[in-house]
Amino acid sequence: MKLSQTLLGIDFKNPTVLASGIWGITAASWRRAAKCGVGAVTTKSLWLHEHKGHRNPTIISTDHWTLNAVGVPDAGVEKAREEIGSFNKNKPVPLIANIIAESVENYAKTAERILELKPDLLEVNISCPNIEDEFGRPFACSVGDASAVTKAVKAVSGKTPVFIKLSPNVDSIAAIAIACAKAGADGFTVINTAGPGMAIDLKSRMPILANKVGGISGPAIKPLAVRCIADVYKATEGKLPIIGTGGVFTGEDAIELMLAGATLIGIGTALADRGENVFKLVCDEMADWGKKNGVKDMKELIGGMHRELQKKS
Amino acid sequence: MKPIPLQSRLPRTYPIAAVRRETEMVQTFTFSVSLGAKPGQFVMVWIPGVDEIPMSIASDNGKQLKVTFFAVGDATRVLASMKKGDLVGIRGPFGTFYDWKPKQRLALVAGGYGAAPMYFAALEAIKDGCSLDVFIGARSKEHLLYEKELGSLPRTTLHIATDNGSKGFKGFNVANLEVILKEKKHSKKKPFIDQIFACGPERMLVSVSNLSALWKIPSQLSLERYMKCGYGLCGNCVVDPLGIRLCVDGPVVKNDVCQKIEEFGKYHRDAVGRKHSFL
After folding, report:
1. Complex ipTM value
2. What is d(CA A55, CA B46) in angstroms, rounded to the nearest whole number?
């Protein structure tokens, strides 16, 4: 099964993407992911100025779920310049720069500064669920806010494609997606972490995360990701590409997200469980599945569920 | 109901079962739990409501787990004020461990609180018939750790070094190791030492690394970087330019890998990923 594709003028040798927030702090991390077979890498969310994250514990897991409230730490644009600059000197795979800000105005400013570093694609994080105490409800939770951020970033983004990273923690992800699409979004990343959730230590009766609550990822959220991807794909009539992210551990998980409408597949939490070779493992498993099931090009899987439903109706 | 197996990536609190004061700044806490940890591995120690920090394991004997720590930072100062019975969260064990073959002759080099994991390594290596030369170093004799315990082990020679010469060799313990390699006429044909293990400040590790390369003795060094998750997700402990995660591919790193880490002995990164020089 062919796993490579050209999307918005960018060549992807396979559909796997290092999800934002996982590794992603340094050029060395991105190179390591590329060496381990990833199709593209995403930076950890980049701020205009330094932003301190939360105290530890910031990440905890069981076999079923991971909770994180790292709090989006970053040293600001100058560090991004050093790391992205170093990566661009000899770039093994496309780089997706993920940006975040506390206001619509600063989303545009951050986008401008980061675009100077020539990323292949801009991913706009409007959906982090673990900095609400600091900044209030994420922009991704309101049609108006999501649309305003998209419009502001698109106004400065030129030819670089802009993907909006959506939250599953909303009444209608379809309504948010439609608003962003109308504001000019070139694609979506679906989904950011769910919840937020909480874990309590029984004896001390204390919440374990220092931030008390954190975004849920891992195998438990895959069905949520599949439904959200399907909603966004349907709402945008399959016209905009989606980086499907959420609980992908195996090739079959990736194929399921593609049938829902994903074009690329974000992988994050699975790195802890399956190790750094997870990108290669997922690709091999996808290829095997394609061979066994007579699918020659991965592209025919994208949105396959919607076409099947249409046939049956 | 069957007991639920421990989740290594989720902390669970345990009452401190025993407190032992080692030196003015250093204490050892014992917990009545075993994580099946090996020497060189670390745990994340959670002080509810305060912080969570990585700590190397001072011993895990199948029944009890011990950690030895310096009260140097905000979190360890709070930890140091805790008493027997207080609840502390633990998750792990994480990372790589020291690796030896039965009956090898090992040099264990420990700077400061590095003596704690080295004592754990010594206990386990002796069970495999290894002979040990243990080098412990500190600023002065009051700061030496695990001196008595290491000194009473079978097939073990203890070498002490202090910066001010108040006990043992005056100077760094790595210099002391070199003196002994020369004395014993260590050579590839007639090796005195099969492997060197080291744990301590990065400046000391650089010396061990260079000595190990010069004398062609394989070594395993325990490196420390800022940790958040401890199991390979957050990327905070990734080192340049290899991109390996020290929580998974470390903390114990073989010297041939260590010598390829450009930032080794030069800089480390903080919680926001900014570089800080060791100098």
Report:
1. 0.94
2. 11
